[in-house]
Amino acid sequence: xxxxxxxxxxxxxxxxxxxxxxxxxxxxxxxxxxxxxxxxxxxxxxxxxxxxxxxxxxxxxxxxxxxxxxxxxxxxxxxxxxxxxxxxxxxxxxxxxxxxxxxxxxxxxxxxxxxxxxxxxxxxxxxxxxxxxxxxxxxxxxxxxxxxxxxxxxxxxxxxxxxxxxxxxxxxxxxxxxxxxxxxxxxxxxxxxxxxxxxxxxxxxxxxxxxxxxxxxxxxxxxxxxxxxxxxxxxxxxxxxxxxxxxxxxxxxxxxxxxxxxxxxxxxxxxxxxxxxxxxxxxxxxxxxxxxxxxxxxxxxxxxxxxxxxxxxxxxxxxxxxxxx
Amino acid sequence: xxxxxxxxxxxxxxxxxxxxxxxxxxxxxxxxxxxxxxxxxxxxxxxxxxxxxxxxxxxxxxxxxxxxxxxxxxxxxxxxxxxxxxxxxxxxxxxxxxxxxxxxxxxxxxxxxxxxxxxxxxxxxxxxxxxxxxxxxxxxxxxxxxxxxxxxxxxxxxxxxxxxxxxxxxxxxxxxxxxxxxxxxxxxxxxxxxxxxxxxxxxxxxxxxxxxxxxxxxxxxxxxxxxxxxxxxxxxxxxxxxxxxxxxxxxxxxxxxxxxxxxxxxxxxxxxxxxxxxxxxxxxxxxxxxxxxxxxxxxxxxxxxxxxxxxxxxxxxxxxxxxxxxxxxxxxxxxxxxxxxxxxxxxxxxxxxx
Lengths: 325, 354
Ligand SMILES: Cc1ncc(C[n+]2csc(CCOP(=O)(O)OP(=O)(O)O)c2C)c(N)n1
Ligand SMILES: [Mg+2]
Known about the structure:
The structure holds 2 protein chains of 2 kinds.
Chain A: E1 2-5, H1 6-20, E2 24-28, H2 44-48, E3 53-55, H3 60-72, E4 76-80, H4 84-87, H5 91-98, H6 101-104, E5 114-119, H7 134-138, E6 144-146, H8 151-163, E7 168-173, E8 180-183, E9 196-199, E10 204-208, H9 211-225, E11 230-234, E12 237-239, H10 243-253, E13 256-259, H11 268-279, E14 289-291, H12 302-306, H13 312-322
Parallel strand pairs in A: 2-3, 2-4, 4-5, 5-7, 6-7, 10-11, 10-13, 13-14
Antiparallel strand pairs in A: 1-8, 6-12, 9-11
Helix pairs in contact in A: 1-8, 3-5, 9-13, 10-11
Chain B: H1 5-30, H2 45-52, E1 60-63, H3 68-74, H4 78-85, E2 109-112, H5 119-132, E3 139-144, H6 151-163, E4 167-173, E5 176-177, E6 180-181, H7 182-185, E7 201-206, H8 210-227, E8 231-236, H9 254-261, H10 265-275, H11 281-304
Parallel strand pairs in B: 1-2, 1-3, 3-4, 4-8, 7-8
Antiparallel strand pairs in B: 5-6
Helix pairs in contact in B: 1-2, 1-3, 1-10, 1-11, 2-3, 2-8, 4-11, 5-6
Bound molecules: thiamine diphosphate and magnesium ion.
Residues 144-146, 174, 176-177 of chain B line the site of magnesium ion (MG).
């Protein structure tokens, strides 16, 4: 165990997987000489050389598509987007090519690719740079979508993502890079599709992922002070989703709130609510609530930005609402 | 073409305004008055000023995220730009856009865009609109040396030439896209040559020489206005500061920076005007004092502004809807947005930069 930042945990996973499999390459803007815009790829160029750590031009559709092509012929590319706001430029390649390849080739070609980079709001970056876009990918069969919240999860899940024979969309929390936590040394792999109970509780189930997990844990502390024992389920993967973990928790607490950073309409959160009401209807003591960011583009001004996203207080109020308190 | 003393003085004054404004913005960022990304334009003043003073009022311009200078060169009030950087309701976009999204459409400046290359099709589309409307306006679209590597450039260059659109693409080649030197990202580092793939007119100008930029733009604007033809102008220039406030710019040498500072566009014009007897020390002093007062006033204006009202979160989401109601549960039903905790002072250190 070592106390590492989220950034350094990801960096460790990259170093280990590069050493483990020489088919693994990393390409993206500023990943090599600059050591990554967020320094996640620090040291990789020096250690593994420019054949495997490649600075690309600002050509997202092009280099992500090329990574998909290379993956078809047995390379294991990790394509880094500087942020997921820019991955939108390569969305066609991900949806039309990466996600469909195995199916449309009748099983002849597969795409062992990781598309990774930071997502979500950071600090005053305004509308084009503050978006939680995981639902765009989560609706696509053929893709896996992972969003770790803690340094240990970041490491364990990135290692799994790199080894996975499918295209994995790996969205890191832009605001999470400096956060710290204990991270197991060496071989530490977390299976994709497994949720994690970040706090056990009996009164209400709070379901979140990525940065919202941390905000929700904060809310659980507020609730604890009021004598409410919340269970925090960190999904970690939003496709495939861990149905069992969600349903087991809801069957125990009989109440649930889903918290997501994204806008409220047509999202992963909506699908979770659909799952719960269908599979655990008889166990519910209250309608499931889904708390989201405000349904509007993110403004720049600090006071507006802080009133756009779920915070611990709002989550606590939502939890109390399903407890009729 | 020799320019009159008045024109040269105007160019000098504009460039000085851009320089002093940006220096102050950098300082205010350090004080925590400005948040997010802040990409300073210092060093590149000759490009925006030379290019945009060649336009008429009814022409159009747009740029990327390093656009404070383009707005100022187009005539946007420095106070409104500074207020926007401060996130105040008296800013250019009411505090909604911030540094990367300065808009002043009334003065024909249609924005700052944060997605690299995203403004390239918009610029051609605006030129298309004025042509469709039977106007003889010209659109100038600025972007960086790295932005031209986006696929969208190729699509749009093709259509602009094919359809005859009065757009001038000004590629500000400051040698780097973030930390990547042009020759590491471009198979054809001579950016202007890329026009030839579409039979478009392309040329290169010394972007550290405001008179040269102005001359080139006077010609290209007239050409676009009269022939409805696009062009690509590569302006070779240099940014003195890092890519954004978080970038220490260790990928380039001090010597390289000093080399370019010797060619400083402001000093260069001062020197040539002085040699021609059109400028003396007293005039420079007076000009500096005037600009300083303007920038002081801009900061004062920004400081005097109020934070946007919370209902502004719901304005301008849809045209025709004054206060958008939003889909789904309303966050405000779970917490009074007036009592949300807002940390004061500097934002936590940016994890990185983009
Ligand atoms: C599509 C996209 N990819 C990446 C980024 C991150 N980014 C912002 S500016 C920049 C460098 C752009 O360089 P250039 O076009 O030369 O303009 P300059 O910053 O030099 O003015 C990068 C990579 C972005 N904003 N949008
Ligand atoms: Mg550049």
